Amino acid sequence: MKFSRQTTLRAQATVAGVGVHSGLPVTLTLGPAPVDAGFIFVRTGLEGSDREVQAIADQVIATDLATVLGDRNGPLVSTAEHVLAALRGMGVDNATIEIDGPEVPIMDGSAAAFIAAIDQAGIVTQPAQRRFIQVLKPISVKIGDSFGEIRPYATGFRAEVEIDFTNPVIGQQSYAFDLSAERFRREVGRARTFGLMSDVARLWSAGYALGASFDNTVVFDEERLLNTEGLRYADECARHKVLDVIGDLALAGLPLLGAYRSVRGGHKLNHAVLTALLADRTAWRVVEGEAVRRTTRPVAETGRSIVGGRIAAAYGPDVS
Ligand SMILES: [Zn+2]
User: Fold this and answer.
1) Each residue's pLDDT tens digit, 58-72
2) What is the CATH number of domain 5-129?
3) In the chain, which end has fewer C-beta atoms inside a 10 angstrom radius, N or C?
């Protein structure tokens, strides 16, 4: 976290592609947003007016194969995680994400195209201190044989991911990552979505993965990797899980000061841990300032919304 002040994009930048599940063409435009706005999806191309949805945990309505945001009228934006990972990973605090279809384009299956769009738009600092959610005590969740935990980690955000697939080509992998924009770009941002060939027929019949191809998904069968171009990293699958973690936990609404550990996890686990954390008002507080220099201080302020919903509500007098 290089900046002690909030950041947004200098200009707009557009990417175009297809949705991995819908197969539909979609155009996505990143753009500036005011101080304390967070990430706001703006869904265009609907009958009637455009609809906005804040990228926060309260707006998550499904986590089965991707993270889906919506409101009481139904889903608005599917597969939100990779573009959110790019924004959070590159150190952007406030941005609009305009999208003219129901699903964020999958591009090459990684966050690379969104990172390129952020580079093209440019990042500018804003006249307000950056704010964080500082984790104060460990919160853990178990779902089946998945385990997730977030614990205090004062200097920034850390992700520790372990995966354990019965598929022998993927097998066991682990990856630990301390977030900085430079490391995100180099080590995680290019890691692609992956899947098993044996799942494809099942997904297709359920109406998923209609846009999936070797151009946007790393595919394994029981014996080998099927993509002729090979892997970008030997542990690309674990790195992609870290990418997903950063995107899913961006739904905290503010950058986290904490270390997250995921064992055999996915979107559902990430969302469950984040929800459990935010629900326990003794487990976190909002601080502002520069995390790296440990000069953050608690924020106790009312009447000034950061991202709406749960986080704005937390700006009550109980903030220590
Ligand atoms: Zn992913």
Assistant:
1) 999 988 888 899 988
2) 3.30.230.20
3) C
